[in-house]
Amino acid sequence: MRTSRPIVAAVLAALALAPAPGAAQDLSDLAGLLNEPVVSTASKSAETAGLAPATTSVLTSDDLRRHGITSLDEAINFLGLGLLTEPAYGTVEIGARGVLLSGDYGTHVLLLVDGHALNEQWNSTAYYDRNAAIPFDLVDHIEVILGPGSVLYGSNAMLGVINVITKRARDYAGVHLVAEGGVPATGHASIGFGKQVEAFGHTFELTGAIDGYGTRPPLEYGLQPFDGGTWGGDASHGEVAVPSAHLRLVVGDLDIGLRSGLAKRTADHIYGTTFDDPENWERDRWLSLDAKWSRSVGRKLGLSARVYGDLYEYFFVSPFATADDCLEGQATCTMRNLGSSRWAGAEASATVDWREDGRFVTLVGAEVRRSWVHSWLDFRDGDTGEDTRIASYAPAGTTVGAYLQQTLHPARWLSLNAGARLDADPDLGSHLSPRVAAVVPAWRGGTLKAIYSEAFRAPSFFERAYSDTSWIASPDLDPETVRSLEGVVEQRVGALRLRASGFRTGWQDLVLLADATPGQVAAAIARGELAAGTTDAYVYENASRVNSYGLNADLDGSALGQRLRYGAGVTVARSRREGDGDGGSERLAAAAEVFGNARVSWVPGGRRPFLSLAARFVGPRPVSHTDFDPTPEAGAQVELRAALGGSLGGGLGYQLAGSWSSDGKTAYAVGPAREALPGYDEQALLPRARFQLMAGLRFDR
Amino acid sequence: MRSTRLLKLAAAIAFTAATSARADDVPVPINLQADLLYMIVGHDRNLAARAGGTVHTLVLTKSGDEGVRASARFRSAAAAKAAVAGLPHVVEVEQYTTPAALADACRTRHIAIVWLSPGFSGAEAAAIGHALAGVSVLTASASPAVVHKGIVLGFDLSAGRTRILADLTQAAKQHVAFGPDVLGLMAVSR
Predict the structure, then answer these.
(1) Into which CATH architecture does domain B23-189 fall?
(2) Interchain CB distance below 8 Å, A296 and B39
(3) Which residues of A touch B31 (CB under 8 A)?
(4) ipTM of this model?
(5) How would you class A234 by CB atoms within 10 Å of its CB: exposed for 0-12, middle for 13-18, buried for 19 or more?
């Protein structure tokens, strides 16, 4: 206490003695304020990113278009801070600040579209590339919250929260057509519209888009021995097809969103005993509805309510050409896996502005969600066509969450935010996720921020309920948890914003697939879950921990009347996993500990073309899904992209975008051989396209 | 038959909810609006002459919960600006009655800036713009929807960043003259 008073006094004195700004400085500050993102995800209320109780980045539609970016992973990698994606099996995996949990199906990040969670309820899966099935032309901006966010959003918000905000009708008025294609064989088309009308004394806004994307890149897979022959070579059947649609109606403060999507992709790299087989594929389908309403009641009180419902289905087909991969008695077979979930929920919240000036505001809310899941796994005999189902389950559950957040602005130089959310589930118990943040605009243009936050991920229905002939169900899994401590310093110098942060996170009870102990196997046999005589089985356990610390830094700004925009970001982290059986600590598979990006764009205005350049760097990381010892390492990688576009007049525009990667391999093992074999001493890695060139036209009227 | 009834009920609820909501919205945080506004007014060449020694801001409220709430927040943020463009600053709050009364208040009390709370309709904004033609005063609105209907300045959010909207035709009518540098940072209509 004694030491804090002189510091506060010194800060106050510095503020008082700060020179009055001149006109040029004032103009520069004005440009800086206009450059400051306005976010609403971190605290569920609009505020500048600098005052938000989290490290927040905003990826704007302007930047997306300037850089020719049309998917979430490209946006995260080239424009974001702290998050990255790694191209994996048919989709990408996502990590943040040195932590990427390979094989997690995106469950450690909460993905929202206009506040509606896309993580489904069977296995909490979310996609962060084209497979997310988000019509990208409709995206206004993307808010990225780094670090735990369960305080307001509940489960899954461990690495961060990504909120994709779609355009309002006033920003998307008219009809918008996009058609583009390129090499490797890729096509994309989109039809969008926005209309705002005044009727019955109210404003009606309608926006929507239908989007179709497809790609069929020829890729070369490294050869590897398999079943007396070889696996790999040139693949020509790799394919991704993603149609999606989004409709949004806003009437006053009633905001209704309807979304549907389908993502189908070949999957012979996952269980690839047949190579380049177009009959080996997986598919996701979604349908969701979300209706929000809010309004002020009196001078102090704001109310909001939300109801939502979702349908999701995952289907996977994999033909196996050898008896070893099939059930006993089957010479060849086709494995089929269905995972579907339905969920519906309601959320209500109230905001109380006690002093009516925004300085002392309480947010209280509650959410209830009911989920139903259905899943099965079967093997169809290649000769008889007979199906044998080895796993089937259909659980349901209800979760209830309640949250409280208090914001306090006692002075212009101090902003406090404290809150907690309690989530309860009859099967999982309850979990409390607190957050405390202090923001101190300590000097002219400078801000200090300190954040402590916790988050959790409830084990999915799949992790708790799945069992088969060699897999024991794990109904007693505990939630995974993470604690994070973060310090941020931010400085605005005119239109340039600089930010640096240090963080430390501790992850506990991470769910890991482990070999069942003899005792667990015996108990499962006694319960009738495993057949008598079974000796080996798998089981999910809360077995792993991760400790991580590091630094983030970024800058962004504009010059020349905002025609020139630039930015860069870098993350350096050290992350180690413990508790997965060998007693030591090890790096996380596919998790880069150094990565970053830089970008610059020039938009001269009028009909003159815009230009942009962006680069991305990813450091070396251990290969995932391999049993080679020692674990091989995927090398550092640089990706470059350039875009050029402009107007042709009459509402017609054009765009060219190209990208190049220094490496044609990912950090993921591929094929049936995952360990050293005679004549096979280097792990084959999943290939990726090194070059891409896209050309497109758009029409806005 | 039952599903038809349910649909009708849902439509009725939706329409009731919609019609009871405010017709306007405030995309940019009020504090940020205040910061931006008082930076901008320093670039109005006629501010000093209009202010006559003290900058008077009039916070014009409209009946309605949202307007009152936003007004309180703006007043608090504006009152923290002890000086504007080097001149002493005073903030007053008043409920809107008629365009003529507003114009009269601006003339007689040397109001330099009028900030309109949410809730003003396009027709009211047009009437205010008409009444203030020839009166030296800068009008700004919490809501972007009324800027091109008779209000000089407004604040909108586009792609996650704030955009200042300015109607230069109305600005000229109200003797507001921004310098070219600051106009380069605005979305201007003439």
Answers:
(1) 3-Layer(aba) Sandwich (3.40)
(2) no
(3) 358
(4) 0.84
(5) exposed
